[in-house]
Specification:
- The protein is α+β, with helices and mostly antiparallel strands.
- The chain is built from 3 helices and 3 strands, in the order H-E-H-E-E-H.
- The chain has a 3-stranded mixed β-sheet with strand order 1-2-3, covered by helices on one side.
- A hairpin with a 2-residue loop joins strand 2 and strand 3.
- It is flat.
- The two termini are 31 Å apart.
Length: 103
């Protein structure tokens, strides 16, 4: 069935976000939002930390992005290589488009 989901676009989007890891901040509001004053205050403190911040959706006390900027730099180097592979290009050689994701 047609879903409108493009794996290539999703992969390309993740790769592009890794290149912008110094600005990356990902968190989920489904179960943890700013409505509750205690949770909201805690989330604000977590989100104020240096980037990258990726809060674990099951446990927003954990930043799964880690605290090792060197590892992110190495990963970004690998991403630059991956972006040259055919899986990241359309048939005409242009890059696969990404989803619009604010960083």
């Amino acid at each position: 069935m047609e879903t409108g989901f493009s794996t290539a676009q999703g992969f390309q989007t993740v790769l592009e976000l890794v290149l912008k890891h110094q600005h990356l901040c990902i968190y989920w509001e489904k179960y943890y939002d700013f409505e509750n004053p205690i949770i909201g205050q805690y989330l604000r403190r977590q989100l104020a930390k240096p980037r990258p911040v990726i809060l674990d959706p099951a446990d927003p006390t954990g930043n799964v992005a880690g605290k090792d900027p060197y590892s992110w730099q190495l990963l970004a180097q690998e991403v630059r290589v991956w972006l040259g592979y055919s899986c990241c290009k359309n048939w005409d050689g242009s890059p696969v488009s990404t989803w619009k994701v604010p960083v």
